[in-house]
Structure formats: structure tokens, C-alpha cells
Amino acid sequence: MATPKTFPEPSDPGKSGVEFPIKTNVFGLKISKHVEVYQYVVHMKAQLCVEKDVVFTKKAKDDFLVLDRHQKCCEIFAHATQEFSDFFNRDSLIYDGQSILFSTQDLFIGAWNSDERKKFFEIDPNQLSHPDLLKLPSPILMTIEAITDETCAEQTYKQLLELSLNQNWSKSISFEKGKLFFVDPIQEGYSGSDCADVGDGKYMIPGIRKKIQMIEGLARRGNENPALVIDALKVPFHKEQAVIKKISEILHKYDVTNGLTQAELDKCTPVIKGVSCYSTYSGRVRHHRIEGICQLGAVAAKFQMKNGKKYTVMRYFEQKYKIKLKYPDANLLICKDHGDKNFYPMELMTISKNQRVTIAQQTSQQMHRTTKESAMLPEVRQRLTMIGKRAANINSQNPILARLGVSVNLEPLTTTARKLESSKIIFHDQSIMASSGRFRFSEFIRPAESPSVWAIYAVGNTETRFSDYVFQHFQSSFLNLTQSKYMMTCRPTEARWIQEEEVEFYLETAAKHDCRFVLMITDDHLPHLHDKYKLFERNSQMIVQNIKMSTVVSIVLHRKQLTMENILYKTNVKLGGTNYTVALEKMKNALVIGVGFSKPRQFSHGPLNPLVVGFSSNAKAEQEFTGDFVLSVAGQDVISSIEEIVSRCLEQFKMNRNRLPKKILVYRSGSSNGSQGSIISQEIPLARAAMEDGIKLIYVMVSKDHTFRFFKPSQCSSLSSRVRAEDVNIPSGIVMDTVVTHPECKQFFLNSHITLQGTAKTPLYTVLADDCDAKLDTLERITYHLCHTHQIVGMTTSLPTPLFVANEYAKRGGNLFMERCKQEVMNIPEEQTENQVLEKITDEICYKNAGGLCERRINA
């Protein structure tokens, strides 16, 4: 069958379910006139010395560099438009602060060849105000070059409209994907509670994320309308404060000037690494990137000068800068400057402003606080969206929009969705309906086979506090519960307390004695052991289940019976059992595959930085989703390993069922809209290459990385602390496949889960290939049913189980890769490619060669 190069045609909207009114965060755009727009490339640079230039329009990833270059580019450009006003018409320009310029007038009128449509400008840095620019030894060279003299294409026009909403440079700061934050949030109408301090020298800043989208609109199928989608944000930023003060806040310690202990260094270093700071002691502002914290202070740390003499850092600053340090015993900062690592006294360094906090710079405790602050209930999110819209001047008074002939609706779009019927959950002794996405567990439909040898260990160190009473009581409760579910028929062969350093010995001993299952109760302060357990599990093929010690204490002392049951549900699935099934339609002859991945930024071990592709399928049994992972070269939109993944799933399907499927349904983790064409033209043909003739393919991309939000049109006030997120959010089963979907795509939004915190984030499903010409009703019902098959919790999940499980396999693959790298740094031999090395490592740590583990859902 020929591979389509475009999206499948949208089919008629679904009809299943009952109507449900919906309010959105989508603001309609009205285009009142046709405006011809021209696009140009801007380049700015200056010569620092004979062999070195500084390029201001160069792209950067670091927040400080992005904003610093943006600020300098904007000042240079603003000055150029004044000095060369005969060339620039300021009222016609829209500039992105870097290398993209739009104009509603042709800047090169009458010029037709490429050489004539390019102009050079020389700018005297002494005419500028930025201190860094004033110190430049040579003029700034700015180039404007035309890209085309024709009206922009649709994608470029959308980019133009988005840029037109980012032109208030003095009041706001902008980041990737349309994120906009305000320099003075309180002045813009936000409250103090919207800018909460979250500790560690960090605070929340409110803002908005906005994107121009083409939607069907209220006229529905066959219509195309531009719209602006705006979502409120609250994001943690680093405070602009003295580094020594930030260290004090991280450690909750008043005085940090006498040196830090190793434990304190271990706590501070990840939180502060990668943050930009600045110093002024040299008479000018110098910027640095923090790499770590030195174990020594200025009084002890020495370095060698070019003349061969050794100086302490304290003496160097006294002689070079006439600065007597107040805190010579305070640890030095390690900063990276032009590739070299240098040491600086903390007291002389200040954290640079406008830097977002990365995931790596948060402790688990603080991540909990920031997540709680950013999880806004619907009423709060809608309020902050409207404040952000006003603060960004997105209204009829915006002169740039007026020149483009664009007006934005005052109020967001309201429409009608549908609420699908929940699935029937089938247990051994009864069938029940999952009312509103919830259900209670009953007797397992298929208990796992009881291991004849199993063990339970409590793992800690000399500082661990865990009583023998809690340990014994948990063992008894766990055994009683498993026996009531017809799982464990014997007591554990061994149950004991072990020290952290004894873990490897006891696991190896258990494996040698044909132990098939080990339950580890691990001190919360030893999270690194989890990955160690999992690599041992893979290599020994002995199931190792890990539980936090605090969870066990809570079960015993606070009688958390539901938590105990959830542990048991995991155990049954890990050991090969099935907790329940779901009454699924039209799935008897279908192979369902989920494909997810872990982002490469999670890894930093040697030269290898792979993308981990996880997958799962029902190849073993109709509703049992097991899987594996593959390490791939990062930086590609297309999953090159998809052919291998589909081939392995088909092989397993045929082995277990003695036949091939008639249909394959793939749920693939989403990516940017720009990569969908590559997936259609390159990735899907690779998937088809693994299929035999006659098998039909449906390929669906699933994404939460969008700006759409959906609300109940009227709801009780969420200001009361008693209001639950579940009560004020849209319920499980809400589906929309018209009005807010793209007019050229077969798409639907499905809110399958119950929202327990903040506002519902509804996944978007885009069909990229459909050999079956499936009705949207059918795809929506199947997808919703698959969101009931998680097995571990008595609730629907936000993603269909095959994709949910695939994402977990991707995370597991990443963790195993990092644990493997701790044992040996992975290099790329000269005679091998990166892909060949990754294939070798995949074989070493994946489950394909791990016996029966490939038939178990070991990441349950």
C-alpha cells in the first residue's frame, strides 16, 4: 500500500455519549484586511580582537544568555531604526529580538536581485546605553537580508502574529514556545500570592503561554479559522540575590561562612549547578556560569600564577583588587569561563535575574512545593489567563495588531463536547462499571503463580529509624492479603534487616538459591538503590519490588489499607498475573502498540547521550501490556528503531497466538507540529516495512504539549480550601473532535482521567495514518477503554495503557543506562558509530535477552 504524504482526511464528528457544555481558553481572531508581509534575516556582530568576533544574534539555550542577547539585539535594532530612519519605517516593523524581522512594507522597493536586497549598517557602540556594548572596541555590524518578496506562507504568517504579541520588550521577557513573563507582575495586576516564595532562593513568577492555531471554529467541518490559545503559567525563577544568601536558604542555615560539610555540599551543588551569576569587583559586570562548589575556602585554596608563584585566593584578591574578604573560610564557587574552570569567593558573586529553575536544580521536596504552586484550579487559571492577556496588550488597542488588520475576541470560545460512557471492568467474581472513571477492585481474574522461594528485606544504614514492630506487622499484613487473593501460599524464605552495603551480597545469595521474588523496603534517604535493584533484576531475572520505608510506616501506623492493596496489585502484575480485564470492542484481532521516549537531557555520562525509546504491546495477551526499550541516537524527530519495534511485537504476537493480527494500532508519544510531516513520510514507512501484506495500520500521535485547556462553564468557587480539583474540573470521558480541532487533521481531544490537582491537561490525539478509515466514534471509544486497563489503580489514566506503559519502559531504560554507566564510562571506539555502540549497550541492558522478563510487565 502506498504511503500517504498528507494527513488522513477528517471523518465526521463522533456521536457517542451525551452532550456536555465546555468553556475553552481559545480566543477567536478576526482578519479584517489583507496585508502583504515581507520577511528578513538580521545578523549582528562586533570584532573583539583580530581573531575573535562576538555574534549577538547567535542562538542560545541558557536562559541568561538568551535574554542577555535579546536585550542587546533589541537595543541595537532600536537605535538602527532611528539612525537609519530613511531605510526603516518603524511603524511597519515586527522584530523577534534575534534574527527574524517582518515588515508590512518592502524595505528594498525596486530591488530585485539578491545582492540588491541586502544592506549593511555600521553602528557606533558609544551611542548605545548597555554597559557591555559601550565597551566594545569596534563598531557593530548589522546586516538585513530579504528572504522573499512575496506574501508569507501560512506557517510564517502564524509566526508573524505570535511575534506581534511580543513587542513590549520593556515590560515582559519571552522564552520558547510562546512563553511570556512580566518584569513587574504586581504592577500588571497579579497578586502577591501569585508570586509565592518557594524556598532555596526561588520564587514563582506568573505568565502566559500563547500560540496561534488554525481551528474549525463554531462553523465546524470544512471551515478554517485562526485563533489565539492562551494558557496561564506559574514557573519558579531564581531570585537575584547574593550567592552566599542563596546557599543559606538552601541549607536553612543562617551562617554558611565557615565552610560546608560534605553532606551540605552534596545538597547544595545540584541545586546551584548551571545557574548564571555575576561579579562587579573588577570594575565592570562579569558574568559566570556556576559549575559547582569547591571544598576549600579562599584562605586555603591555592593556584599557580604565570610567573610560577603560588597564591591563595584570599591573597590574590588582596593584591590584585585590594579586596579584603570578609569570609575567607567560605567555600569557593567553581565557575566556567570560556571553557576554563575558575574559583571565586561566594561573597563577591550575585545570582543573575530572570533565570527559570530547571528540574535538576530542584530537590524532590522543593519540586513538590513548586508543583503545588503551579497546579492552579480552573477558576484561578482562568483569572490569571485574563490578567496575562491584558498585561500582554492582547486587545483591540494593540497598534501592531491593528496595522495587520487583526482583532482578538474579548471572551474565550464556549462549545459543546460529549461525555463517553465508562467501561465495564471484569473481575473473577463480578463485573462493575467504572463510574466517572473510578472503580473498586475485587477478586483477581488471574492471580500470579506463587513463587516457592521469596524474600523480604528492610534496607537502611546506621541512621535509619525503622522499628522491628513495623517490619513484622507489615510482613504479616502483606502475607495475609496475598493469601486472601490466592497469590502467596508460603511465608518468605528469608525476612531480615540489612545494611546498604550488604544489598548486593543478599540479592546475589537469593538469586543463587532460585529465589524468584524479593520485596525491598528501602530507607527514603537511599533513592539511588532503586536503579541498582532494577539492573540486578534485569541481569538475574529475579523480580525485585521496591517500597519506600515511609510508605510501610504509614501503612502500619496509620492503617493505609488502600496503599497496601496498591502494592499487592503491583506484585500480582509483576509476577505475571492479571488483576482485571475490560470489555473492549473490536480488539480481538488487533495488535496495540505504545511508543514513548525519555528526553536525552536526562543523561550526561560520557560522549553518549541517547534517546531512550520505550514500547509496549498486547502481543502476549489481548489486555496484558508488556514491553522493552531501545537506545537510539538523539536529536531526530523520526524514531529510526520503529521497524525493529513493530517487528518484535509482531513476532511475539504470532508466537503467543499462532497467527498475525489483522490490524495494528500505534499510539506514539507526541512531538512538535513541525515534525508530523517527517513522521508521516519517514517513520510510518519504516513501521510498514516490518508488516506483512494485508495488515492494516492506524498510527496515532498523542500529545500533552499544547496550550489548550477546557473548563466547566459554571462551577462553584475554588477559593475555598475544601474544594477538590475533581469537583471543579471537567470529568473523565470528555471528548471533542470538532470546533477546536485542526480543520485539515483527523483529531480529537480526550480527557480520560480524573484531575486530582490543578486543572485538567487534556491529551490531543492526531491520526497520522489510517488504512481502516476508522470512524472517530470507534477510535475515541477504543482509546477511552484502553485508559481503563492500567491494572494498578482503580482509576482511568490520562493516556491509554499501552502508551502509559511504554513511557515507563523509556524511563526504566534511561535509569538502567545511567546505572550501567556508573560501572563503566561508555566511549565510542574509532572503528564504530554511535548507533553501533548504542545497539550493543541496548542488548546488554534491555529485556529482550532477559529470559521471562520480556513477557512480564516488570515496570508495574
From TrEMBL:
SUPFAM superfamilies: PAZ domain, Ribonuclease H-like
Biological classification of the source: Eukaryota, Metazoa, Ecdysozoa, Nematoda, Chromadorea
PROSITE patterns per UniProt: PAZ, PIWI
Annotated CDD domains: PAZ_argonaute_like
Domain PAZ: 246-353
Domain Piwi: 517-818
Protein name listed in UniProt: Piwi domain-containing protein
A molecular function GO annotation: RNA binding
Gene3D superfamilies (alphabetical): 3.40.50.2300, paz domain, Ribonuclease H-like superfamily/Ribonuclease H
